[in-house]
Hints:
By secondary structure, the chain is of the alpha/beta class. 30% of the residues lie in helices and 16% in strands. It is built from 4 helices and 4 strands; from the N terminus they run αββαβααβ. The strands form 2 sheets. Strands 1-2 form a two-stranded parallel ribbon. It is elongated, with a radius of gyration of 21 Å.
Amino acid sequence: MMSVIHEADIWLMRMDFTFEFPRPTMPNVVYIGGFNCKPSKPLPLGLEEFMQSSGDHGVVVMSLGTLFGNLGPEISEVDRCSVCMSASERWFWRHLGATTQ
Length: 101
């Protein structure tokens, strides 16, 4: 197995270099990320209306995964509201944690 790895003429890396950390690669490395992506599906009607109603400023989609859900409702809601109020874009947040409302 090691001889196959050492004698490979080209390495096909199934990752997208735009999402990886910068690192040096050899000239025989080819990034082929995204080749197995599926065609997109249409948005649900309510979400499509939200996106289209944003006007010229657009929409910011924000998701911090599980980290944001563990911050606590007092911190997350204050930070969300202060950022959203100072921007002209519409905001779409993914928040799985508890809320104070």
